[in-house]
Amino acid sequence: MPSASNSQKFDRERQIAYFSTCLQQLPAPYCKLDTNRLTMVHFCVHALDLLGVWDEMEKQNVKYSSFVEANNIIEWILSTLMHIDNNDPQEAGFIGGTFLPPHHKYHHSHIAMTYTALCILQTLGVDVRNDPRIPQTAIIRTLRRLQQPDGSFASTIQGDGEHDLRFLYCACCISYLLDDWSGIDIPRAVSYVRNCRSFDGALALVPHGGEGHGGSTFCGVASLVLMNQLYVIGEDADWKASLLHWCVTRQQKQGLQGRPNKDEDTCYSYWIGATLRLLGYDAGTGNEDDVLCFLDHAELRSFVLSCQHPVLGGFSKVRNTYPDVLHSYYSLAYLSLSQKYRQDTQMKKDLEGVSLKALNCTMGIGQASILAEEGFRPLL
Amino acid sequence: MASSTTTMITTEDLPALFHDVTPIPQDEGPHIVCRIDYPPEFTIAYDYFRALSAKDEWSERALQLTTLCLQFNPANYTVWHFRRKCMWALLMKEDKSIDLEAFLVNDLTLAAALGGENPKNYQIWYHRRAILEYVEQQTNKELFYTFCRRELDYTAEVFQEDSKNYHAWCFRQWILQTMKAPAIWQEEMDFSHQMIMDGDVRNNSAWNQRWLAAHRGQLTTPLALETAQSEADYALQGARIDPYNECPWRYLIAILKEQCRSSTMEEDKRTWLLQHYLDHAELVKEVLKEADKDPEACPNLSAALVDILEMKGDTEALTHAKQLMHYLEHDIDPIRARYWAFRSKTIEQALSLKSD
C-alpha cells in the first residue's frame, strides 16, 4: 500500500522554478562540475521540456519571468564547439563548458558533452543533422578515433581517461541523432557490452568481472537498442531471464536500488524503469510486452514524490536531503515514464491531473524531440 | 631533489610564482547558462592554468599549480591530463635527479588526500591507474608489483569507509588482472571471504569479487565441477547466515546455471547437481524455523528454489515451481506480483508442452 503520509503531490510550479533557476545559476559547490556544465544544461533544458515549458513559451506565448532564452542557450552551446581548425582538423565535438578558450591547445571535445549538446540543440529546435553550424561528418569521424580495440569508447582523443559503458552509450546516441553509424564498429561494441555482463545477468560499467549496476545496465541495453542489436539479449533466454529478474528485484520497499542490498535512490527509477521498458519491446513486431509493469509504480512514485523538495523543488537522491540537478531530472523522467500506469487512484492524486510530455526512454529526452516524421528512426 | 608537489601553494603565491605569465580569464560569452558561482580563488587559479597550459610548460611550478587547481575541482580531467604530462616530463629529464618511486608515491598520496572527500571521482581513480601503468611500462616487474600491492592495500582502506565503493572495486579488479600473477587469485578468494563473512554478508560487491576470484580471472571458462560445488556450498553457507539476503542465492543460481550451460556436463551429473542443491537449498528453511520465521515466506529463498526447479525442467519440478510462484505472487512477494504472474504463465506454457 502506498503510504499517503510521505507522498507529496507533484508541484509543477515549484519544479519549473527549480530548473529555471538552475539554468541561470548554480551555487558554488557546482564548481566541481565545471567541466560538466553542459550536462547540467542538458538536465535543465530537458526537464523544462518534459514540463511543457518550452512549448508553452513558443506556442502559447506564455511568459516566464527571468528565463534563459532558448536562443541564448543555443549560442552558448555552440560556443563550446571545438573549432575544426583548432589543432586537429579531423576532430570535432563539444566541450563541457567555457573553462578553456576555443583555440586553446587543450581544448578537446568530450564524447558525453557532444551527446548532451546535440540532444539540447535538437530539443530546442536545431536540426542537428543538417544545420551547417554543426560539423556532422567530423563528429562521426571523431567517434571512430575514440573507439578502442575492445569496442569501448574513450571520452577524448587524448585517451587519457577511463573507458566504460557510459561512453559507448554516448557514441550510440550521437550516431542516432546524426543518423550516421560509420563511426562505430558495431560488432566490437556489442562484444564489449557482452563482456560487461555480470554473474547475475546485469551489466557492469566495465567488462571482465565488474559488478552489475543500474546505470551501466541502462547504458548497455539502450546502446544495444540504438545499434539495433538488442536481440543479443533477446535470443539468450538465460541472460534475458536473469536480467529481468535482476531489474525487478531492485525494488525492495518502495524505491529502486542500483545494486542488490544498496539504498533506494531516485535516479534508478529511471535507469531501471527505462531498461525494463526497452527489454519488453520487440523491435521485430513493434509490440511492447509491458514488462515495465512488473514494478509497483504506486510505491515507486510514492518514493520519488517523497524526495521532492517542498521548498526548493527538484528531487533529491534519498528522502530528507537537498535536491541536485541529476536526481531531479531522472525523477522527472521516471514520472513521465510512469504516466502509463494511471489506472490507480493514487496516481491520479499524485500527479493531480498534470501531464508531463512523453519521454523517449532510450535517449532519455522528450519523445517529441526525435519524431519519425522528421526522419528519426522510431525508438521507445 | 625532493618533489615539490608536497609544497602546497595557495592563490596568494600565484602572482609571484607566475610573474611572467598573463592569466587568461574564462570567456563565458554574452549569454551565460548554468552560471556557476565560482569562489574567487578558484577563478584566479584557473586563470593561471589556462595561461600556463596554453604554453605547454611542463615544470615544477606547473605541477604545483595543478595541485591547487585540483583542490578546487578534482574532476577537471584537463588539469589531470596536464599534470601527468608535467610528471612524465619531469621524470624523463636527463639528469634523473628525481627518485621515481618517491615522486609517484607522493602523487598517490595527493590523490588519496583528494579522494577522501571525493571517493567517487572518476578522474582521481584514473590517476592512480595511470601511475601504475607508467610504472609497469617504464620500470621493472618487481617495482610494479610493489606498487600494485600498495594499491590493493589502498582499496582495502577505502573499503573501511565504504565497503561497496564501485570505483575501488573496479580498480582492484584492474590491478589483479594487470598483474597476471596466478597466485593472486587465491589471495583474492581469501579477501572476498573476509569481506563477506567478517565484513558484510550482504555486500554484493564482495560476492561479485568472489565470482571473479573463483574463476581465477577467466570468466569465459566455467568452473570445474569440484570448484563449482565448493562455491555452491559456500553460497549456502552465506544463505544460512541470513536467508533473506539476495546475494548468496543469486550466486548459487549463477554457479548452477554456468554448470548446466557447460557443454562438457553429462546429463546424469547435471540431474544430480540440481537435485543435490535443491535439497540443500530446502534445508536452509531450518534456519528460518529455528528463528521462528515462516520458512515458506522468504522471497529470495523461494525464488532460488523456483530457478533450480525450472532448470530441472521435468513435470514434477515445474509443477512445484508453479506452486511456489503462486505463493510469491499472492503472499510473500506482492511487490513483484505481476512479475511472478508472468513467470507462472511461462511455466504453464512449458507444462502444457510437456503434456502434449
TrEMBL record, chain A:
GO molecular function, one term: CAAX-protein geranylgeranyltransferase activity
Pfam families: Prenyltrans
EC number, as in UniProt: 2.5.1.59
Residue stretches making up the Prenyltransferase alpha-alpha toroid domain: 10-348
A GO cellular-component term linked to this record: CAAX-protein geranylgeranyltransferase complex
PANTHER family: GERANYLGERANYL TRANSFERASE TYPE BETA SUBUNIT, GERANYLGERANYL TRANSFERASE TYPE-1 SUBUNIT BETA
Name recorded for this polypeptide: Geranylgeranyl transferase type-1 subunit beta
UniProtKB/TrEMBL annotation, chain B:
Protein keywords: Magnesium, Prenyltransferase, Repeat, Transferase
Domain of life of the native organism: Eukaryota
GO molecular function terms attached to this record: CAAX-protein geranylgeranyltransferase activity; protein farnesyltransferase activity
InterPro entries in UniProt: Prenyl_trans_a
Cofactors: Mg(2+)
Top-level EC class: transferase
Pfam families: PPTA
Entry EC number(s): 2.5.1.58, 2.5.1.59
PROSITE patterns: PFTA
The protein's name in its UniProt record: Protein farnesyltransferase/geranylgeranyltransferase type-1 subunit alpha
